[in-house]
From TrEMBL, chain A:
Name under which the protein is recorded: cytochrome-c oxidase
Record-listed E.C. numbers: 7.1.1.9
GO cellular component: membrane
Annotated keywords: Membrane, Translocase, Transmembrane, Transmembrane helix
UniProt KW Oxidoreductase keyword: no
From TrEMBL, chain B:
Enzyme Commission no: 7.1.1.9
Pathway the protein contributes to: Energy metabolism; oxidative phosphorylation
Gene3D superfamilies the UniProt entry points to: Cytochrome c oxidase-like, subunit I domain (1.20.210.10)
The keyword Heme appears for this protein: yes
Gene: ctaD
Name assigned to this protein: Cytochrome c oxidase subunit 1
Subcellular location per the Swiss-Prot or TrEMBL entry: Cell membrane; Membrane
UniProtKB/TrEMBL annotation, chain C:
UniProt keywords, alphabetically: Copper, Electron transport, Heme, Iron, Membrane, Metal-binding, Respiratory chain, Signal, Translocase, Transmembrane, Transmembrane helix, Transport
One GO BP: ATP synthesis coupled electron transport
Family in the record: Belongs to the cytochrome c oxidase subunit 2 family.
Gene name for this UniProt entry: coxB
Stated name of the protein: Cytochrome c oxidase subunit 2
Organism field: Dasania phycosphaerae
Length: 316, 519, 385
């Protein structure tokens, strides 16, 4: 039902001018400016000097969320009003696909980092290989193992390291056992992908309640996953002494799983919104449900990342 | 609800617009402002280097100038300039009514001004602005950085976000919005080069984001990515940075190739030679750009096998780039050439960029790079490809499409003067830098040994001349907009081909709301 | 001339005066190689090979340039509309496309051979006669001669050019910015292996004439080597941005005959031995005051004033630190105050000197603390005891 031009060609809906983008920029800027100031206060701030950084951050974050909400609302309303041609919908699809590709590249950098430190840096520091054969002079007694529970600094002692001290990196006492929580989490996340698939199927067959149900189950699985992740972090920090500062093992462990966890949260929020849309407003039809589809792709993507995490961070 | 509206009135038009031409215009002006800012930093650098000894700024501030100059030019001037061109031209070239995702388009733009405001404001912060070079190597940029580094990191995040959204938009537009009959192999080369550039951007900006995030963690949250004491490696930073950074330099140059491939045929009055091979060459360059990054790191102590691999891969890039250069020259061959300002800038481009490419090939040879690396030879190389490459092609583009954008004609005499002054100023600035580098002058130093005095002085004088010529450019553009003579109705140039030239000048606010049929 | 240049450069902002002072600059640079436009082949075989490779590629590029630009300018000059040229309309030719893909490819292969060979040589650090460890510090170099018997010799090499020259108050000397207080000394015709590392940020050790450039990475050691075939003094600079004074950490290598090198090394060793002997000695307050004054005048007075009254640095007289806990005082002396002009002197003056100067500061200028610091105290402090 998209607009038709005089020669019968479907027209592409170009929205009228809109303040959304500008407001999104300003609020996003405020958020990150606030975040930077908060972090700086934390590291270098004078506790006696009051700053507004928290206010910037909070106001920014709230208004950014509000703008995003308004923005998505606008797009949904437009779609419901039949303004979106098939071509426009294709633009959304392409947009989402390339967005996910950009996320793939982000994780590619993280996994690349993990590969590099595990396979090259560690052995080099322990004096192996062409590039590093003399490093034994700097880190006498350091032996490379992964997980690295004795950092080079631990091996030689802080006072004896030959580089200016720029932090304390005390290796952890143990490593996370993949057969416990991570295995449970794998099962949770994999099954959530399956239930999400069921939901999608139900939607395509116009079985609304089945859709709601399966999507709901997916959400529960997702949130339980996040919950377990929190428990795992607690245990790692308090029982194993595994922190961000525990040398490169802790660094990569939390960085990779942390960013994954963050993406799970984002995906879960996206799916929750789709769920609410279906529950409250009966959005989505059998062949027009891009909001759901995009969130589902994202969820599957996050799932695939987890499989790699499980392999390279936990098991191997 | 029809899309045949004119622009909204007043200032809010610019804040709220979803129109690709408005957004393109804003990008172009923004990038010009950043060019002036980055250029002003360069003038401080050149003034300080006019003579040996510390003259006008102290070393600490000098480093800030070098860093901010590089950052502002690359991320603030060149990249947005080409995005602005893409916005203006891609929909008109492929017969689309607008960009695929117009509101997001506006968002991509409006992220930039506050971001660069934040970046520039670091100059006034405690500890000063970023002073660790535009390549911000750890640990100078982490453990040893001034507090403003946190703002710098978030600024990079924001501009990365802007680039990614902008690129996704371009990809969606090109893939989805081509007019009927506009097959991929009929697209103007500018569109092709941007499609591939956009792909590069989506692929590497997230890597840069990951890189600065790791810095953030190392600085504030105790991680040890870049510290050997915890099992990390400062060189890891360089690998991640250059995995982004090398494709980045082709992100800068590919759209420039596109521009030149549009303009040369027009003034040679002859179709572009080897269109297909141009497309394949662009794609090969993009592909190769992912496997050459270590050529920036030959001296960090890479195992020799790796060094050889990256050396060979880097040398290979000369082949597809050569194909492009040869195609341009063959396009001119047996043409009927005229030499209006856009053509002059394109000829300057081909000549000087190729010289920059030659020095690139010299740099690519690892054993010799041990002598060249981090010397002014490198500085000369990359200004030949970036200033005489990207900036010259931008000037060409502005002169070429200005009649289409504004409906007015610029002043040809002033344009030619701009070209010749730029050409002379540019070479005076950067040619002697080859000598300086070969004679042993390191880059990023505020003060130098006496034997480097003469060439530095020449270079500084050249830089002032080149800088001043940009004022002429600004003046010419402003004069065109305010008081230019009307441009010819559709085609401003006799030999111009392409959908954009079938539109009236100035191009109406909304174009191709009904897609044209391309034969 | 110099005086004039000096005064003029104070007003450097005025372009006219800047031009005048150009003449001054010209006069300073008399003996350095002005107008040098090319790479130096240097004094090593490897350097000569690198130079040859550089020239080969350079000429190849020039010839390609002559052909390519020749065609371009020919076309520009003759195929122009104003000469009545009519445009042809050919726009592809598979055979020429193949030709200009293959020919550059072949040229590159031709270049790749010598490049590969030379690179393998650069990496061949085996069978060195001598190992020298090079450590980059913000902003100086430390050289440590590794002795098979563990009798290492090490020292720092600092920029010697004074602030007054840099700030144009005095005429600039011939080796402005390229001179150090203590150069690295190497024997001629010996293969020297360098173990390059850094203490804080990344630096790069570069001496063009020796054809060596290697990054100094904190926490890692990079190997490289050289074999100078001529005696002489060779100068270079740090080549990786390393902070404020990146432009002020030069390298000077003095290549000498083997015998001379041996003498120098032995002298260094006996100096070290002397200091070692002093390390265990107990000095009296008077001895320390006398020795300390000397060190103070040489190393500290510039900033803290001849009478401890302060200047760039805070006053030492009545300073809460110089009259407070010894450990804090030692800490400031040894580790400096980060972010200020107060450098870490622990790596620059030896423990004997440090003990003396700290004693001096605690007792001179009316501080009268009465305590005597011994070298061993400094040593223990550094060891974290
Ligand atoms: C627009 C940006 C741009 C472009 C297009 C290029 C193009 C190339 N660059 Fe450049 N480069 C930079 C921007 C760019 N560069 C920047 C910014 C830096 C420094 C970053 C920093 O450290 O701050 C840098 C640094 C840099 C280095 C690192 C130097 C060092 O730090 O030690 C190297 C090394 O290999 C290199 C190589 C090349 C090569 C081989 C090409 C090739 O693509 C060139 C190919 C072109 C030609 C060769 C000419 C045309 C070809 C023919 C006519 C065919 C026949 C020719 C032959 C057979 C030789 N570049
Ligand atoms: C595309 C990017 C780009 C562009 C366009 C330029 C443009 C210029 N750059 Fe470059 N430059 C870089 C990218 C770029 N640069 C990068 C990436 C680095 C490395 C940074 C690093 O080491 O980290 C660098 C480093 C660099 C150095 C080395 C600094 C050092 O190592 O310490 C120098 C020194 O001469 C220099 C000079 C110049 C000059 C004179 C121009 C001129 O072309 C600028 C001309 C423009 C203007 C002058 C502005 C417009 C006019 C006015 C404002 C009018 C007023 C002016 C007058 C009246 C004179 N640049
Ligand atoms: Cu040390 Cu630059
Ligand atoms: Cu590169």
């Amino acid at each position: 039902m998209a607009g038709q031009s005089n020669n019968g060609h479907e027209t592409y809906y170009v929205p009228e001018s809109s303040p959304l983008a500008f407001l999104a920029s300003i609020s996003l800027f405020l958020t990150l400016f606030g975040a930077a100031s908060m972090i700086n206060d934390m590291s270098w701030g004078d506790p006696d000097v009051a700053t507004n950084s928290k206010i910037y951050f909070t106001v920014g974050l709230f208004s950014f969320s509000a703008v995003l909400f308004w923005w998505f609302r606008t797009t949904i309303v437009e779609n419901l009003a039949g303004k979106n041609s098939a071509q426009l919908k294709r633009s959304y699809v392409i947009g989402m696909q390339w967005f996910i590709f950009s996320e793939v590249m982000f994780f590619f950098a993280l996994f690349g980092t993990l590969w590099y430190v595990r396979n090259l840096v560690g052995p080099w520091l322990a004096g192996e290989g062409e590039g590093g054969r003399m490093n034994g002079l700097l880190w006498p007694g350091f032996e490379y193992n992964w997980p690295m529970n004795t950092t080079p600094q631990d091996a030689v002692g802080i006072a004896n390291q030959t580089i200016a001290n720029n932090g304390t990196f005390k290796g952890a006492d143990g490593t996370v056992d993949w057969t416990h929580i991570p295995l449970i989490n794998t099962i949770l996340l994999l099954s959530s992908s399956v239930t999400l698939h069921f939901a999608h199927h139900a939607l395509k067959e116009e079985q609304r309640s089945k859709f709601n149900m399966w999507l709901g189950v997916t959400l529960i699985l997702g949130f339980v996953f996040v919950g377990f992740q929190v428990v795992e972090y607690q245990e790692a920090m308090h029982e194993l002494g595994l922190t961000l500062g525990a040398g490169i093992y802790g660094t990569t462990f939390f960085f990779l799983t942390g960013f994954h966890g963050f993406h799970v949260c984002m995906g879960a929020i996206m799916l929750t919104i789709q769920w609410l849309r279906s529950m409250k407003a009966s959005h989505f039809t059998k062949d027009d449900h891009f909001g759901f589809e995009a969130s589902a792709w994202y969820w599957h993507f996050v799932d695939v990342v987890w499989i790699f995490l499980m392999l390279f961070v936990y098991i191997l | 609800m029809s899309a045949h509206h004119g622009p909204a009135k007043g200032f809010t038009r610019w804040l709220t617009t979803t129109n690709h031409k408005d957004i393109g215009t804003m990008y172009l002006w923004f990038s010009f402002a950043m060019f002036i800012l980055g250029g002003a930093f360069a003038m401080v650098i050149r003034a300080e280097l006019f003579q040996p000894g510390i003259q006008i700024v102290d070393p600490e501030f000098f480093n800030q100038m070098t860093t901010m100059h590089g950052l502002v030019m690359v991320f603030g001037a060149i990249m947005p300039a080409f995005v602005g061109l893409a916005n203006w031209l891609i929909p008109m070239m492929i017969g689309a009514p607008d960009m695929a995702l117009p509101r997001m388009n506006n968002w991509s733009f409006w992220i930039l001004p506050p971001t660069f405001l934040m970046l520039a404001s670091t100059l006034f912060m405690d500890g000063g602005a970023p002073n660790y070079g535009w390549t911000f190597y750890a640990p100078l940029s982490t453990t040893y950085a001034p507090p403003s580094v946190t703002y710098f990191i978030f600024a990079i995040h924001l501009m990365g976000l802007s680039s990614i959204m902008g690129s996704i938009n371009i990809i969606a537009t090109v893939v989805n919005m081509r007019a009927p009959g506009m097959t991929y192999m009929k697209m103007p080369l500018f569109v092709w080069t941007w499609l591939i550039t956009a792909f590069l951007l989506v692929a590497v900006m997230p890597v840069l984001a990951a890189c600065v995030t790791m810095m953030l963690m190392d600085i504030h949250f105790g991680t040890s990515f870049f510290s050997a004491a915890g099992g990390g490696d400062p060189v890891l930073f360089q690998h991640i940075f250059w995995f982004f950074g090398h494709p980045e330099v082709y992100i800068i140059i590919l759209p420039a190739f596109g521009v030149v491939s549009q303009i040369i045929p027009t003034f040679a009055r002859k179709p572009l030679f080897g269109y297909d091979s141009m497309v394949y060459a662009t794609a090969s360059i993009a592909f190769l750009s992912f496997i050459v990054w270590v050529h920036h790191m030959y001296t960090v102590g890479i195992p020799v096998a790796g060094e050889l691999f990256f050396m060979y891969a880097t040398m290979l890039i000369a082949v597809p780039t050569g194909v492009k250069v040869f195609n341009w020259i063959t396009t001119m061959w047996q043409g009927a050439m005229t030499f209006e300002t856009p053509m002059l800038f394109c000829l300057g481009f081909v000549f000087l960029f190729t010289i920059g490419g030659f020095t690139g090939v010299m740099l690519s040879l690892a054993p010799v790079d041990f002598q060249y690396h981090d010397s002014y030879f490198v500085v000369a190389h990359f200004h030949y490809v970036m200033v005489a490459g990207a900036v010259f092609s931008m000037s060409a583009a502005v002169y070429y499409w200005l009649p289409k954008w504004t409906g007015k004609m610029y002043d040809e005499g002033m344009g030619k003067a701009h070209f010749w002054i730029s050409f002379i100023g540019f070479n005076l600035t950067f040619f002697p830098q080859h000598f300086l580098g070969l004679a042993g002058m390191p880059r990023r130093i505020p003060d130098y040994a006496l034997q480097f005095s003469d060439f530095n002085m020449m270079s500084s004088i050249g830089a002032f001349i080149y800088g001043a010529s940009q004022l002429l450019f600004l003046f010419n553009v402003l004069r065109t907009i305010l008081a230019g003579k009307p441009a010819p109705a559709e085609k401003a140039w006799e030999g111009a081909e392409g959908l954009e030239w079938t539109l009236p000048s100035p191009a109406p606010y909304h174009t191709f709301t009904t897609p044209p049929n391309v034969k | 001339m110099h005086l004039q240049a000096k005064r003029l450069s104070k007003l450097a902002l005025s372009p006219v005066l800047m031009l005048l002072s150009m003449l001054g600059t010209a006069a300073w640079a008399e003996e350095a190689q002005r107008w040098q436009t090319n790479l130096t082949p240097g004094v090593t075989e490897l350097g000569a090979k690198i130079y040859d490779l550089h020239m080969t590629v350079f000429w190849i590029c020039v010839w390609i340039g002559v052909v390519v630009f020749g065609l371009m300018f020919y076309s520009i000059l003759t195929h122009r509309k104003s000469l009545g040229a009519k445009p042809a309309d050919f726009h592809e030719s598979t055979s020429v496309e193949i030709a200009w893909t293959v020919v550059p490819f072949i040229i590159l292969i031709v270049i790749a051979f010598p490049a590969t060979k030379t690179l393998l040589e650069v990496y061949d650090t085996d069978d060195a006669d001598l190992d020298v460890m090079i450590t980059g510090y913000q902003w100086k170099w430390k050289y440590e001669y590794i002795d098979p018997n563990g009798d290492n010799v090490s020292f720092f090499s600092n920029l010697r050019t004074g602030k007054t020259e840099i700030y144009n108050e005095d005429a600039k000397g011939q080796h402005y910015l390229l001179e150090v207080d203590e150069p690295m000394v190497l024997p001629v015709n010996k293969k020297v292996r360098f173990l390059v590392t850094a203490n804080d940020v990344i630096h790069a050790w570069w001496v063009p004439a020796l054809a060596v450039k290697r990054d100094a990475i904190p926490g890692f050691i990079n190997e490289t080597w050289t074999k100078a075939t001529q005696t002489g003094i060779y100068r270079g600079q740090c080549a990786e941005l390393c902070g404020k004074d990146h432009g002020y950490m030069p390298i000077v290598v003095n290549v000498v005959e083997e015998a001379e090198y041996k003498n120098w090394l032995n002298e260094k060793k006996s100096q070290a031995a002397e200091i070692k002997a002093l390390m265990s000695k107990n000095f009296s307050l008077d001895e320390q005051m006398a020795a300390g004054k000397e060190v103070y005048d040489k190393s500290c007075a510039a900033c803290h004033g001849a009478n401890g009254e302060g200047g760039v640095g805070k006053a030492i007289a009545k300073s809460p630190i110089a009259t407070g806990a010894l450990a804090t005082h030692l800490d400031v002396g040894v580790n400096g105050v980060p972010g200020t002009a107060m450098q870490a002197f622990g790596g620059q003056i030896n423990d004997v000197e440090m003990a003396a100067v700290i004693t001096y500061q605690r007792n001179a200028f009316g501080n009268n603390m009465g305590d005597v610091v011994q070298p061993i105290d400094v040593y223990n402090f550094k060891q974290g005891k």
